Amino acid sequence: MPTYSESHFSEVLAAIKAGTSMRKASQQWNIPFITLHRRYHGSTTRRLANEATQRLSGEQEKHLADWVVAQAALGEPVTQPQIRDFAARILRACGDTRPLGSHWTRKFLDRNPQCTTKGSKSATPRKHRIPAPRMFRVDVHERSLSQRAKVEVVYH
């Protein structure tokens, strides 16, 4: 993952235009030479180049990211399945009925690091879970204390 940003590129390109060699600028700002060379000669970022292949438009994705951030600010962070469901609803509203890819949510969160999600939880909270049936030995106090019976405890 690159450690440079668009602001770095604007600084580096300004330095190159001021007379710094491309190789020296590449080493100084720790940007791969080929990346710097391509950007200097007019290529776009991968994100912009691949935007046309994304299912949601940039504006739709921004609205979805804003919704995720707003939910988290309200104290109700959303889960990844909720994000996926909301995106599918947006697509259906636009007439697209194809399902989203298996890695869509992860890639969406990679593209939008400001979005945070809560981890998934079990459908049944721990305090309401029913323990598995167990065998107990229970004293039977009818005739003698020495008689014991096995009783299976069944939870309904």
Automatic annotation (TrEMBL):
Which residue stretches, if any, does this entry annotate as coiled coil?
none
For whether the record's keyword set contains DNA-binding, the answer is: yes
Which of UniProt's keywords are assigned here? DNA-binding, Nucleus
The answer, when asked if Nucleus is one of the entry's keywords, is yes
InterPro entries in alphabetical order: Homeodomain-like_sf, HTH_CenpB_DNA-bd_dom, HTH_Psq
Tell me which residues make up the HTH CENPB-type domain: 48-118
Q: What is this protein called?
A: HTH CENPB-type domain-containing protein
Species: Phialemonium thermophilum
